[in-house]
Amino acid sequence: MVPVHESDLIVRKLRAFCRSHSIPTEGALVVTVHRNRTTEFASVIVRWDNEQLLPLYPLATDLQQYSELKVGDFFVVYKAKLDLTTLDAALGRQPADDSNSLAPFCCNNVRPYKARQLDREQLFKDFLTSSGHHPNVVFEVKRQVDNGPLLSTTYFKLVHNCITKAPEHSYNQKLHAFKNYKCTEHNLFFGVDLYCDGDTTGAKKNVHHMRLNQFAHHNMDVLGDFFSQESAK
């Protein structure tokens, strides 16, 4: 939960940014701000009718095409005027059985959604099979009802063929790699992102700009610098 004073600040500054760049403030907005030549980013989802910040935008297919801006030291990717009726219907869907929430996935029947081969493909394969040793990587798992509300965000480490939960604090050094998975049996959708943890030797970071992220990540250092740069124009 974002503190009220931070939420109000983000919404107010984001509205001013949209006004400055002729971005509509109707419906819902999903925006990701990436500090150029770093792995630092922030993602915000806001519905303008009540100025509420959301933890996710549940319909990933709506975000496959989006707009991009280069704004000073930042890349901004966004999708505006998202339909609130569709959003409310998705968020109102009932959660599936989530009794196994301490594990990364609900069962062994998860399958990649829109399978993509990545440079770091082996990391995801090892994570799925609980095999391998990647002590400097944190796996962030977002669990949601398929096309519905967010159920949990959990962090894991894979060390000596064993998956354990990692501390739940803000990991800001993101590796440019992600995969999505679905379980049709339990009607669940999983988003898996990779972050650096501690010594990043051997965990090569990629600094080109990121995709539009459907999950909120309120990195106030990035947002503060971004909004300050906007105000100074």
Key features of this structure:
233 residues, 11 strands, five-stranded antiparallel beta sheet, 4 helices, single chain, alpha+beta
User: What gyration radius follows from the Cα positions, in whole Å?
Assistant: 18 Å
**Structural class of the secondary elements?**
alpha+beta
From the N-terminal CA to the C-terminal CA, the straight-line distance is 31 Å
Largest sheet composition: 6 strands, antiparallel
Query: Helices and strands, in N-to-C order?
Result: HEEEEEHEHEEEEEH
Average residue pLDDT: 86
Strand proportion, as a percent range, falls in 25-35%
* Parts with pLDDT < 50 across at least 5 consecutive residues: 199-207
Number of helices: 4
Tally of DSSP β-strands = 11
- Which strands sit side by side, in order, in the main sheet? 6-10-11-7-8-9
Helix content: 10-25%
Q: Based on Cα principal axes, name the global outline.
A: globular
Question: Secondary-structure map with pairings?
Answer:
Blueprint: H1 4-20, E1 28-35, E2 41-47, E3 52-53, E4 67-71, E5 74-82, H2 84-91, E6 111-112, H3 121-129, E7 134-145, E8 150-159, E9 162-165, E10 174-183, E11 188-196, H4 220-231
Describe this entry's structure for a reader.
There is one protein chain. With 233 residues, the protein is of the alpha+beta class. It contains 4 helices and 11 strands. A hairpin with a 4-residue loop joins strand 7 and strand 8. It is globular, with a radius of gyration of 18 Å.
